[in-house]
Specification:
- It is a single chain.
- With about 45 residues, the protein is mainly α.
- It contains one helix and no strands.
- The chain is rod-shaped.
Length: about 45
C-alpha cells in the first residue's frame, strides 16, 4: 500500500466516522430523516 492510498483511506475513514457520529447524535436528539410516525416533525410530509 502506498502512502497516497493510506492517506486517502484515512481521510475517508474520518469523514465516514463523522457522518455516522452525527447521525447517531441526531437520532438521540429525536431528529430523523424520516417521519417516524410523528407528523408534527414532518412539516406536512406525512400521508
Amino acid at each position: 500500500m502506498t502512502l497516497g492510498t493510506a492517506v486517502v483511506g484515512g481521510v475517508l475513514f474520518v469523514v465516514i466516522t463523522g457522518i455516522v457520529a452525527s447521525m447517531v447524535r441526531d437520532k438521540k436528539a429525536g431528529k430523523s430523516l424520516q417521519c417516524g410516525g410523528d407528523c408534527s416533525k414532518c412539516r406536512g410530509g406525512c400521508h
